[in-house]
Fold this protein.
Amino acid sequence: MVRIVLLGPPGAGKGTQAKQLAKRLGIPHLSTGDLLREAVRAKTPLGLEADDYMRAGRLVPDDLVLRILRERLARPDVGPGFILDGYPRNVAQANELARISPVDRVISFDIPEGVLVERLTMRRSCPACGTVYNLSTRPPQTAGVCDNDQTALLQRSDDTAEAVRTRLGVYRAETAPLLEHFRRLGLLAPIDATGTPEQVAERLRWALESRS
Ligand code: AP5
């Protein structure tokens, strides 16, 4: 069983890497952002409550996120382990996670902030199959539509310049302190998240193998 957390600022490439790693290791990718966006789309009471926080780029209250995460962790596919992307986001969430499902490794994505704004404002994704594109580094073959199913691509409501600024501020203030938290616990393995997705995947593989 392997339980991995990917930690890093918005746009660092956590989701991109988590999807590939999940396939390679045969364990699910659990993204609290995706779970919350699903709840928003489905207009569940939790989704309706989370929506305003997410649009503004602020953290959704801990109790709501914990509820959605607990439900996901109760599903049988997490038996062999999981890759957690987007949780924990603050020390209270890290303590909660230690209680419900202690993790084995925390990989942090090191990347200069300047790169992130460009990556996020250029991101587009397919609402049908979830494929993530980037207008400058990974554009679709036909502008505006998904290569796999020709669905119109969407921009996330929190990928506006203003919400991105807020998200980066929230990361610095609330999430970055977790680096020290996990370092002290001996769980942290930082990787350089600049370069191509393939280069980052190789560093991620190395970081996981060298600590096993
Ligand atoms: P969440 O969905 O977790 O978003 P995030 O952490 O801000 O991270 P992103 O998904 O934006 O970035 P990423 O690192 O996954 O980058 P990606 O691989 O897509 O959270 C959204 C919101 O939900 C939060 O703001 C909050 O409101 C709420 N929330 C979620 N979890 C919460 C929690 N635990 N507590 C409270 N609230 C919570 O890549 C980005 C772009 O760059 C893509 O276009 C991609 O194609 C491109 N790209 C990726 N890698 C590379 C590369 N190596 N080179 C060039 N381009 C690349």
